Amino acid sequence: METASFRIMLDTFWVLLTGFLVFFMNLGFAMVESGLCRVKNTVNILAKNFIVFAVSSLAYYLLGFGLMYGNGGGLLGLQGLLAVSGADNSPATGEAYRGAYAALSWTGVPLWAKFFFQLVFCGTAATIVSGAVAERIKFVTFIVFSFLICTILYPVTGHWIWGGGWLAGLGMFDFAGSTVVHSVGGWAALAGILLLGPRLGKYKPDGVPKPIYGHNLSLATLGVFVLWFGWFGFNPGSTMAVNAPAIAHIAVTTNMAAAAATATATLTAWLLLGKPDLSMILNGALAGLVAVTAGCAYVSIPAALATGAVAGGLVVFAVLAFDRLKLDDPVGALSVHLVNGVFGTLAVGLFADKRVAVAIGTDSPGLRDGLFAGGGLAQLGAQALGVVSVAAFTLGLGLLAWFLLKLVLGLRVSRSEELTGLDLGEHGMEAYSGFQTFTNM
Amino acid sequence: METASFRIMLDTFWVLLTGFLVFFMNLGFAMVESGLCRVKNTVNILAKNFIVFAVSSLAYYLLGFGLMYGNGGGLLGLQGLLAVSGADNSPATGEAYRGAYAALSWTGVPLWAKFFFQLVFCGTAATIVSGAVAERIKFVTFIVFSFLICTILYPVTGHWIWGGGWLAGLGMFDFAGSTVVHSVGGWAALAGILLLGPRLGKYKPDGVPKPIYGHNLSLATLGVFVLWFGWFGFNPGSTMAVNAPAIAHIAVTTNMAAAAATATATLTAWLLLGKPDLSMILNGALAGLVAVTAGCAYVSIPAALATGAVAGGLVVFAVLAFDRLKLDDPVGALSVHLVNGVFGTLAVGLFADKRVAVAIGTDSPGLRDGLFAGGGLAQLGAQALGVVSVAAFTLGLGLLAWFLLKLVLGLRVSRSEELTGLDLGEHGMEAYSGFQTFTNM
Amino acid sequence: METASFRIMLDTFWVLLTGFLVFFMNLGFAMVESGLCRVKNTVNILAKNFIVFAVSSLAYYLLGFGLMYGNGGGLLGLQGLLAVSGADNSPATGEAYRGAYAALSWTGVPLWAKFFFQLVFCGTAATIVSGAVAERIKFVTFIVFSFLICTILYPVTGHWIWGGGWLAGLGMFDFAGSTVVHSVGGWAALAGILLLGPRLGKYKPDGVPKPIYGHNLSLATLGVFVLWFGWFGFNPGSTMAVNAPAIAHIAVTTNMAAAAATATATLTAWLLLGKPDLSMILNGALAGLVAVTAGCAYVSIPAALATGAVAGGLVVFAVLAFDRLKLDDPVGALSVHLVNGVFGTLAVGLFADKRVAVAIGTDSPGLRDGLFAGGGLAQLGAQALGVVSVAAFTLGLGLLAWFLLKLVLGLRVSRSEELTGLDLGEHGMEAYSGFQTFTNM
Known about the structure:
3 copies of one chain form a homotrimer.
Chain A: H1 3-35, H2 42-69, H3 111-132, H4 139-161, H5 166-169, H6 178-196, H7 217-237, H8 244-273, H9 278-293, H10 301-324, H11 333-351, H12 354-360, H13 378-408, H14 415-420, H15 422-427
Helix pairs in contact in A: 1-2, 1-3, 1-7, 2-3, 2-4, 3-4, 3-6, 4-6, 4-13, 6-11, 6-13, 7-8, 7-9, 8-9, 8-10, 9-10, 9-11, 10-11, 11-13
């Protein structure tokens, strides 16, 4: 057997395995989101978080993958659009790539391995929305929106940055998706929150926010551990190849950013709120993971620690700020995925270090030398342009999508269903039959 | 280092890793089954699902593996029976296989890797029984039955199909075990249900079934996510070698079948029951996974979608049908594993496509061209023969085993213990100390 | 691409992947420990178990790794101490190792892969303490102690055995850390228990222990499944290279010890306590895993079964004994990690078999022939010396550390906080908002 085919075997194993870990993050999201909401809405959140990956699979297969990675212009994929039906000769042992998905030709694994890995990322963007709109959205409306995000919203900006589109051409870098995945999910979620409004009872008549406590912090903690675990697929896996120095380095930048963010979120919450709030500790870890995702392959370990440390503080302030802005986000999805997705994307402009990237083999032409190396502002500018253009597209089209759904299907369950809980209203069942729960919450 | 030893290293890593994922499915089963049963029986179900893998490990080591894979006739393994003590020269670098387990000589990994991977499959068959007989079976009786299924019931039919026995010789195909694992577990469970009878209170005096709700749908959902995750070990791992096109293809057929089944189960439940019942959604995903297991390496992606779509509808009808037939299966194990194990095995006859198998390197002589390719009914016949003969053996011997256990140990806890709950009766403890629960359920 | 670099790629993938599994054990510990404690202390235990890995990451990066693996004398690492800043040329393709961490030069993976894998082991030692001191320790004190164990306590004795120190020189063997990880965690925990004293209400006025029941055995069971799964990273991964016969053998010794221990713990509890207590079954599995950790790469499968069988009985007796000794250990951490860490380390002296080690490539000069092969008492002596010296150092310095923390920060929450629960006292929140719980427990 030749060298080339060993490389393909090894890389395919790696891409699938890390993809499995990213798939597993669906469990993490389901547990974090249901754990941070109320007993009476648990079945509904679980059902949303479960079905969203099924919908993502169908939608990304039918259209999303082609739109994102099909050969085309700077704005959209145009070849191999439907049902991953474009020509493809991967794994292309020793010959040039001749196929419809040239933007993924840099990895030599079979097309279905590429599809699977990209699918689980698409699923992540879709599931981020779920927590932000929880405890009030209609089940059917959420399903349709999930279909739309996976067929259109996610693939289009994904094409711009990862599919060989115009932002990639300008030298914007987002290694594993602080923007492509996390802030896209965040902007789509913000659009939903703007049209949905806050949960009943979240604000007192005088506008002061009232805390609404999560019903199961054991599951929320479990969820964050699963997400941290899955992130070892998300970030190192985004090499889509076993590059030994790179995957080892990325595992450590990812982990250290999460650790630093956990520490600073704990401290910030302790100082600001008087006690170390567990939900802040957990969201701190997630914030560090989101923030380091864009730069994990380009920054040094100390820079990863710095990125995480900032993210951990930022998420606590963001949670408090959104609460005051009356943007009611039951699980802190905006603070984690949107705010830190944006911050992490910009942090590439601050911390990316060409010497690191060269050492581990993740350098590309156009990568700036990084602040430590005395580079200029060009990279930061490219990053900011990416942030702004993705924001404009996703928030704009997201608002339109939610608005049309409001007209056609309705966004929000009835007042009485919201008070009773969506579990009985949408699903006719309770999550914890046999337990005595408080019904006036 | 030579090429051959690299291949062995890579394949051993793959076989172990996917085996770890299949092991992890024990957690999935434990959470699904306890989540779908009542508070008062939680400790008992957890204990059963935990100890069953320990018993499987001991039983399959002592006798099961030898009976299944030892060289022998078409009916049973006869060499290397006890404690995996047969001669073996794997990994057989460059030389021919000379050993007692020739049916596994097609994979070049060390014997203990083969054993481990096969063990976790045996454990899956055993744990399927647990949910079906839940909430009324005696703990000790279940342990002894688990020992019997792993030493005799599972290995014998496994020998017929995977161990070089008579069904393999007739060209029956079951890539990862829709029949070998899932329907064997299902038939053994059905035998138990027939002898145990329904739970107290499941049927009203007029024979109408009463719904008995699960106590923890968060854990049930968690369990299904874990099972879906583990299935990426179950199906792609059954290559027992890193064949890049095959493992990528199988990961996608597996995933798409699960996604399609989730969608159709949701729709079917919504139409039939008026609301999208979460336990139906979850069982839908499992049904798709079980059904595609036999054919995942032989069918196209659209055929996998079709398989899943049928499975998702089938499971909902099956749950309702078993309920009416007074076959009381608290977690839907028959509908998932038996019905869809049978359907998936037959679906190989409908959908197996020699062009797919050739393209990804999973073709074998005897594989039919598939319905799409205009093949005949021979493959379907071989599949049906496999289904019927496994049914006859497992149901027959299963009934005998349960019957003897009834005589010797008793099958069912006392009426008062069943009413109070098996947690206090069998284990003297409660699962959720400190929580207020309803005791009249 | 050359052979050497394929080996590095494959080994790096393996080391990272198994490291991810060991990281995941943090979830296992969090669920076991919170599940076995009371509702009112759940948030606190979750917060401790979550933040301890963040603290471990920072502490081991800042100092621990250098102290453990830096070149130096027999007692301590002296080079590359701070922030993993020593010179290093791994992966050293074809050239000799020239760097500051020579004790890890036997594995060819990049330095960050080595660091990551060692970090997750350090995190395990730290998190063991958490359960033993649960339900009464101050949050801030636990955080500071975690920092100390990862910077000093764990790395120093780790250097003795794994870092090329004096015990390694004497031929003491501890393949994956029965002593280095588990009994170090256990001794540090014992020191804490001695200074903290038992929980309020644990002993009646006449000194008889009162059972305090765990609040969530579903989560405890989930946790043990996760730990068993993670152990497939812990033990086979400790090869830090894809040695096919070794990793397959170790996966099976690990699994069979756990299975045997589960069986004997169940039986022992059934005989001694009258019923098969689930927490004993679960701790039985863990005991077998801890015990086989030292010898998994040196013993035959029957010897692994024997090791596990003893461990499973031992843990039940140990739990009862510690209870009577008024060493109040809410989760059984001493019985699992300390008692079986010691037993497993000594069992290497009884069961290590040079023929096994030669066959799978894990032999080293100095490894005795094993009892089965008629070897002498030298190996047992080396193992016992390791146990005693680690005990003296860790218990001694642990007592000093806890004592100083008592003076500076205080060890224990106030009496009223302990009665109300640490969740409200330390974190101002409840774990299960919306559920009705008993407050007088």
